[in-house]
Design goal:
about 1400 residues, 126 strands, about 0% helix
């Protein structure tokens, strides 16, 4: 059979097998041919099949690796050897047995692998005659080189990892920083010519020395060991001092290089390296004690800004990018401005810096700093200038000041200084009163200055003062200067003039001025140009008058119209001026008007002025035209001198219209100089847009423009062509719409001949006029004119009437299925038949096979022609036939439009998404009114199961579902019928819904199916934990048609903060959204353990109305006392409480500070006991210390793990209670009062007793004062002590269970001596003498001591006796008589 072959050699028979894939048993059967009846002999031969697979490797040079050869489907071990280039390889490790899966593995490990092809040679040991099999394994070696750099800190560092010996399948090259993968700022290129890959890592801002690792992994053999090499990215820092210096001041700049000692540096200006010369001195670099290197460049005489560059490059890694630091030397100039100002006015001196880039510090000297009259104002710094101004609020005399400049940005820059002077002067400028038309003179005088001054004159009303009217002194007479203004023929009014004085020496000085009034009586009025029937206001102004002055108005010089029906006057008085405004209504402005303003001052004498109103008229035409016709509007301005008139046309937005392709403008004067006509020609393009609003804008003299509105109205005319059967009556219609004016319609023959056998009717309704021309008995084609007349303009229109005697059947448009047959028939309706031929047309082209138009089968006789068509997309269009007579004339049939309908139905929507119980519907629309074919029924299937007429069906899992079958809906306009199924979404009503329409002739119309889906939202967990240090992460997965908005996460109670990240993925018919929400809570501090309480938050994720809920338990809020008091060798306990939940896994580790590091406590001597979770979600952990040692007087904290989230308690200070004796030895005289005292440190007021060690008695102690927090002074007073009170005492102190004893206090009692009596005329003075005391004799006034050797008695307190008791008396002295 196929795959087997037998051969024999002598008595040896061999069975050969090709591609044996399974273990097999064969039988060798021997039958005698000599003795056929002999019994046959047979033996079984087993063929065992095993599979050998190898694992190849691709590694970088010197990377240890292992090749693997795996033999499977074994029943017994095989022998395995490895070869390369025919040489057996040593060091292989081969399993000595077959494992339970029938596998045996051999491995060839290599420390320094060699590139090449290795052979795994296997041979059966069970069947030694079996052949050897060789299976190849490949070892590919890659080369790998990584660069290192040293760059300026915070600059970009670029290193490259070059991988060589790359084969067809490129390895992957990645980078790591420590254990973190680097994903940003990587690029990779391929050097195909040299079989290399270059991976480049860019660190945009290298901030510190770093080590990155290039990792190479084989893509061809993914199990290969990765190759790694590290790249050193080193940094150094350069800091340079920018300098601000006054022009031409010698200066130096310095750059400091730190964090390296292996650098080259140079100074550059533009592209030129700087070396020492007459302008520069390059100093040798100096290395400082801290290792910094200082590079200094001296500039001898700087006169311009210098943009220097300090360049550095690593010597250690010369391929590193050269780094540059910009060093700026900025020159500034100093200008100091003095001031000349009016006495007792504000003055200012200025210090101005120019050519600046940096703001400077400016200070002033030379004025009393505590005086409020001197204020320094710093001007805003706007490069390149800065100012500082010293303002004197009341300059009374001449002064001088100094300004000092120092750089802020570069404080090492040298200072500079300038000097300023203030001079003062006085001004006099008196008022002047005069009469109308007089020639007054105004004089302005300045005194107090030695330097010439500048006078300037101005008028308050802005009137320019001619220079020839002003005269000023050319020289200073003493310290007096003056200027005069001479005026001529002054008009009435009050005029204010200003004499302004400014310094010529210091032009920036604050100018001083003085005003004087020139009072001149007078009247002024204004006349107006006004359009007829437009209201207007006239103004009359009387100057140089009082408030009691009366102003009235008269019409035609006689009639007082100050108050009237059409006139209203309003007066106002201000600054010697009275104004009257007369408002005139438009009804009184029909013709020119003359009015008189009458001013009656206090003198009673009337003064008058005449005001006129010149009235002009504007007449604007309106027009109605047919759309797409030209039009003309006219604007006529009359009753005014035309040279004062400017007229223009504007659109409805009052935008000026200029002449262009759409508009023509013509302006015509009447020749009499009183009328101007402006026409606007409007093109057909404009009228095509319909009605339009326009304005005629007229400006007369200096008046504001006046706008008069008009409207261009349009109407439309339609005259459709008509087709009429020969000899029948036709109706021709002419319709005029949107006409506002009267419309006249007339009819005539297009060729000018008289119209016969016709009549017409007119109807008008709602702005539309319709004229119908009835034409009888037509036998040939004819044309008529419809002429429309509106406002005297006539608009002609031509209408064509065609005759026809051919009939096409079917005689109406038809719809037919694709690939269906239809026969069209064209025949004469009359019995008269002409000589000629039928022609069929498709879309007005002859369908004889030419011109790309192909017909079906045509059969014709004298009277009839039939066309058989097989419907396709190419036969969609208008069909008709014509009969071409032999005389050359042609008649046409009616036409029909053939629509070819595809065998498809429309099912909508294609996809449904919704929520449970949400009502949905699916509709299937199929074509009807098909020529010679009838729609029979709709068939519906859900997941391939029939939907019955009652709406019942099954889904793909055979779960019952129910639909509501709605009655079919027929649309005549669309030639369609629609079947609709309604249903409510549920967990089982999800699947594919499809309709299957059927027709009379058996066509099955295909429709696209609808995929019905549920909108769902699910969370990856229902509850979790959140701490202030470890946020909680919840993943919400949603499915819907689309996601027009993000999901919202609400939570309660408040206190939970959430951030989200969103990823959308397209799925069949919709999208899947994965939104990862990270929940966090703020860190909370509590003041007492009672305030601890765990909060459970409910977070609800909602998207498109569907929600998923997660419970988050807040945990990790801790409370512990800030300190715990301990006593050496006594027990102690430290507690910490924290919030958690019953569901959490909790562990606590207590840490103790040693030096500056916290270490975990040893197990011996320390026990941690943790409570269960209470009803508030709080656990208390207590650390018990068996015996406090000195190293326990330290800081402690608890490290708490709550389901993997770690939190730490606050630091708990272990404090030791302590007591210190104030005095350990007290010596006291018997019967004296003493006090024993100690200072104790502890948590609260202690309980204390004083113990007499020698007697074993104790006294309660209540004299306890709180000196500072935790420090107490404890004292016990003993009154009238005696010998039995002597001995050793100690204080026993108890702080809340902590007991400690003070050191001993030794009390020694000394004996008192008996009292001594005062000697005669003396008193005894007692004094301390070490542990003893003395009495010294003090004589009374006027006496003397008799024996000074007995003036002091000493008491020995050890014995209670005096050294002497007989003290000297004091004697009175008497003068001899």
């Amino acid at each position: 059979s196929s795959g087997y072959a037998t051969t024999s050699t002598g008595s040896e028979y061999m069975l050969s097998m090709d591609n044996l894939s399974t273990d097999s048993m064969f039988y060798c059967i021997v039958q005698s041919t000599q003795y056929p009846t002999s019994s046959s002999g047979n033996t079984t031969i087993s063929a065992s099949v095993y599979v050998v697979t190898t694992e190849s490797r691709e590694v970088t040079a010197s990377t240890a690796t292992t090749l693997t050869c795996r033999i499977s489907d074994l029943t017994s071990v095989v022998s395995v050897t490895w070869k390369k280039d025919g040489q057996k390889q040593s060091g292989e490790v081969t399993d000595s047995s077959v494992n339970s899966n029938g596998e045996q593995t051999s491995r060839l490990p290599m420390t320094n692998p060699v590139d090449g092809t290795y052979i795994c040679v296997t041979k059966s040991t069970l069947y030694p005659s079996s052949p050897e099999f060789e299976t190849e394994a490949y070892l590919y070696l890659l080369t790998m080189e990584v660069s290192s750099v040293e760059v300026l800190v915070n600059t970009a560092a670029v290193v490259t990892c070059t991988v060589g010996n790359v084969r067809d399948q490129k390895p992957t090259v990645t980078w790591k920083e420590g254990d973190t993968d680097v994903t940003d700022h990587l690029s990779e290129s391929e050097d195909a010519a040299n079989n290399r890959i270059l991976s480049t890592l860019t660190v945009p801002q290298l901030q510190q020395d770093s080590v990155y690792t290039c990792v190479v992994r084989s893509a061809q053999f993914p199990k290969s060991e990765e190759g790694t090499k590290t790249s050193d990215l080193l940094t150094y820092d350069v800091s340079c001092e920018n300098v601000d210096v006054r022009k031409e001041t010698p200066v130096s700049v310095t750059c400091v290089v730190s964090q390296t000692d292996d650098i080259t540096a140079s100074w550059w200006l533009s592209d030129n390296q700087i070396s020492s010369n007459s302008d520069y001195t390059v100093k040798n670099p100096e290395t400082q004690n801290n290792g910094d290197i200082h590079f200094v460049l001296e500039i001898v005489n700087p006169s311009r800004n210098l943009d220097l560059t300090f360049k550095t490059r690593s010597k250690k890694h010369p391929s590193s990018k050269e780094s540059t630091k910009a060093v700026s030397l900025r020159i500034y100039e100093l200008t100091v401005t003095g001031s000349q100002v009016r006495t007792e006015s504000e003055s200012a001196v200025k210090c101005e810096l120019s050519h600046l880039e940096n703001k400077m510090a400016i200070t002033w000297s030379g004025y009393p700093k505590d005086s409020p009259d001197y204020v320094v104002t710093e001007g805003s710094f706007t490069a390149p200038t800065q100012t500082s101004t010293l303002r004197i609020s009341n300059a009374k005399s001449d002064e001088s000041f100094t300004c000092i400049i120092k750089s802020i940005a570069n404080p090492q820059s040298p200072e500079s200084a300038g000097y300023a002077q203030v001079d003062t002067y006085d001004i006099t400028f008196p008022d002047v009163s005069t009469k109308k038309l007089s020639n007054p003179t105004l004089t302005c005088t300045v005194s107090g200055l030695k330097d010439p001054i500048k006078f300037e004159w101005s008028s308050e009303d802005g009137t320019e003062i001619p220079s020839d009217k002003v005269s000023s002194d050319d020289a200073v007479a003493g310290d007096i200067q003056s200027s005069t203004l001479e005026l001529t023929n002054v008009n009435s009014g009050v005029y204010t003039y200003t004499c302004q004085v400014s310094s010529l020496t210091w032009p920036t000085s604050i100018m001083s001025s003085e005003t004087a009034k020139l009072r001149v009586f007078g009247i002024t009025v204004e006349s107006r140009y006004v359009k007829a029937n437009t209201g207007v206001v006239l103004t009359c102004t009387a100057t140089g008058v009082t408030e009691t002055t009366v102003i009235t108005w008269r019409l035609d010089a006689t009639n007082d119209v100050t108050k009237g029906e059409d006139f209203t006057a309003e007066d106002n008085y201000e600054d010697d001026t009275k104004t009257s405004k007369l408002t005139i209504k438009g009804t009184a402005v029909t013709n020119d008007v003359t009015l008189t303003c009458v001013v009656t001052p206090d003198t009673g004498k009337e003064e008058t002025e005449i005001a006129t109103i010149d009235v002009y008229r504007v007449d604007v035409s309106t027009k109605e035209v047919e759309v797409r016709s030209k039009a003309t509007l006219t604007c006529v301005v009359s009753d005014v001198t035309v040279d004062k008139v400017t007229a223009k046309w504007t659109d409805k937005n009052q935008t000026h219209i200029t002449e262009n392709n759409d508009y023509t403008i013509r302006e015509v004067d009447d020749g009499g100089n009183t009328e101007k006509t402006l026409t606007l020609g409007i093109s057909e393009v404009v009228t095509q847009g319909g009605d339009g609003d326009y304005f005629c804008a007229v400006t007369v003299a200096d008046e504001e423009p006046d706008y008069t509105a008009t409207t261009l109205e349009t109407f439309t005319t339609s005259v459709p062509d008509v087709e009429v059967r020969t000899g029948e009556t036709g109706y021709v219609t002419c319709t005029v719409a949107d006409a506002e004016k009267a419309v006249t319609i007339s009819w005539s023959s297009a060729d000018g001949a008289a119209i016969s056998n016709t009549e017409y009717t007119h109807t008008t309704k709602d702005g539309t006029t319709v004229s119908v021309l009835t034409v009888k008995g037509l036998t040939q084609d004819t044309s008529f004119n419809c002429e429309v007349t509106v406002e005297g303009s006539t608009y002609p229109h031509v209408v064509n009437v065609e005759t026809n005697d051919l009939s096409l059947t079917p005689d109406e448009d038809l719809r037919i299925f694709d690939q269906s047959d239809v026969i069209l028939t064209c025949e004469y309706k009359s019995s008269r038949v002409s000589s000629g031929s039928f022609v069929w047309k498709f879309d007005n082209a002859v369908c004889d096979g030419s011109g790309g138009v192909a017909c079906g089968q045509i059969t014709s006789d004298l009277k009839t022609s039939e066309l058989k068509i097989s419907a396709s997309s190419g036969s969609e269009g208008t069909w008709g036939c014509t009969f071409s007579k032999d005389d050359g004339s042609e008649i046409k049939s009616n036409t029909l439009v053939m629509t070819v309908v595809e065998l498809t139905a429309s099912q909508t929507p294609p996809v449904i998404w919704g929520k449970v119980d949400e009502a949905k519907s699916v509709s299937c629309t199929t074509p009807i009114n098909i020529y010679n074919n009838q729609h029979l029924s709709f068939g519906w299937e859900f997941d391939g199961n029939t939907v019955n007429s009652d709406g019942s069906s099954f889904n793909a899992n055979n779960s019952p579902v129910t639909f509501t079958v709605k009655p079919d809906v027929v649309s005549a306009s669309d030639n369609s019928k629609t079947s609709t199924l309604e249903f409510s979404l549920s967990s089982v009503l999800v699947g594919t819904l499809a309709c299957k329409p059927e027709y009379k002739k058996g066509q099955s119309v295909a429709a696209t199916a609808t995929s019905v889906n549920l909108e769902t939202v699910a969370a990856d967990k229902t509850s979790t934990f959140v701490t202030a240090s470890t946020p909680a992460t919840v993943t919400f997965t949603s499915r819907s048609a689309d996601f027009p908005e993000k999901g919202t996460v609400s939570s309660s109670p408040s206190g939970l903060t959430v951030t989200t990240s969103t990823t959308d993925t397209a799925i069949t018919g919709g999208k899947e959204r994965v939104e990862v929400a990270t929940f966090s809570v703020a860190s909370v501090s509590v003041g007492d353990v009672s305030e601890l309480s765990s909060t459970s938050y409910t977070a609800v994720y909602t998207l498109l109305g569907v929600s998923a809920t997660v419970t988050l338990h807040s945990a990790g809020v801790t409370y512990a006392d800030k300190e715990v008091w301990m006593s050496i060798e006594q027990k102690a306990q430290i507690s910490c409480s924290f919030t958690t939940s019953n569901d959490a896994d909790i562990s606590v580790v207590w840490m103790r500070q040693r030096s500056k590091v916290y270490e975990e406590l040893p197990e011996k001597g320390y026990t941690n006991i943790m409570s269960s979770v209470n009803e508030k979600g709080v656990v208390t952990t207590v650390l018990y210390i068996d015996q406090v040692e000195e190293e326990d007087i330290s800081n402690f904290k608890a490290v708490i793990s709550i389901s993997g989230a770690k939190v730490e308690s606050g630091v708990i200070a272990g404090r030791m209670v302590n007591v210190t004796v104030e005095t350990d030895t007290i010596s006291a005289l018997a019967q004296s009062d003493i006090s024993l005292a100690v200072t104790a440190i502890g948590p609260s007021t202690p309980t204390v007793v004083l113990v007499h060690r020698d007697q074993g008695t104790s006294l309660a102690v209540t004299e306890i004062t709180d000196d500072t927090a935790g420090t107490y002074r404890i004292a016990k007073s003993l009154n009238s002590v005696y010998k039995n009170n002597a001995g050793q005492y100690y204080f026993k102190i108890e702080f809340a269970g902590l007991i400690l004893k003070s050191d001993n206090i030794t009390l020694t009692i000394r004996n008192k001596c008996k009292p001594l009596s005062n000697p005669p005329n003396a008193q005894l003075v007692e004094a301390e003498d070490n542990d003893n005391y003395t009495f010294t004799v003090k004589c009374s006034s006027g006496t003397v001591m008799m024996d000074t050797s007995r003036s002091v008695a000493k008491c020995d307190t050890t014995t209670g006796t005096y050294d002497i008791t007989d003290l000297t008396p004091c004697l009175e002295t008497t003068q001899p008589t």
